[in-house]
Amino acid sequence: MFWLVESPPPTEEVTVNMNVGGFRVETRLATLRKFEHSVIAQMFPPGRWFTEGLFDREQSRFIDRNGEAFIYVLDHLRGKTIMPSDRSLMDRLMDDAEFYGLWELQQKVHNHDLNCREIWIIFEDME
């Protein structure tokens, strides 16, 4: 379902209310556009992001992805990359990094995963 939201053209300091897979978040438009060539930045084109796309009943921008993984994506966009400790969530984060076109995050997740596997191998060798 599409909802049209009437508002003035946004500046980079405008906040965006989002519903990502049922998780509600609010962030600055500038944060979402941090990596201008990423898919997520392209979801919020200048002058049109507030009228195009899918909106929920509360007029929050809706993205049909895993909301729990998106929290880590948002942290990365804010300049702080944190890795989840849960293996399945790590896999979801890798999928979302690829989906959103955040190649730097994808590389960090990949490297973190390799480091964790190396640690497990060391512990297995000690037994």
UniProtKB/TrEMBL annotation:
PANTHER family, per the entry: GH08630P (PTHR14499:SF136), POTASSIUM CHANNEL TETRAMERIZATION DOMAIN-CONTAINING (PTHR14499)
One Pfam family in the UniProt entry: BTB_2
Residue ranges annotated for the BTB domain, each copy included: 14-117
Signal peptide range in chain numbering: none
Alphabetical GO biological process terms: protein homooligomerization
Coiled coil (residue ranges): none
Name the UniProt record assigns to this protein: BTB domain-containing protein
Source organism superkingdom: Eukaryota
InterPro entries: BTB/POZ_dom, SKP1/BTB/POZ_sf, T1-type_BTB
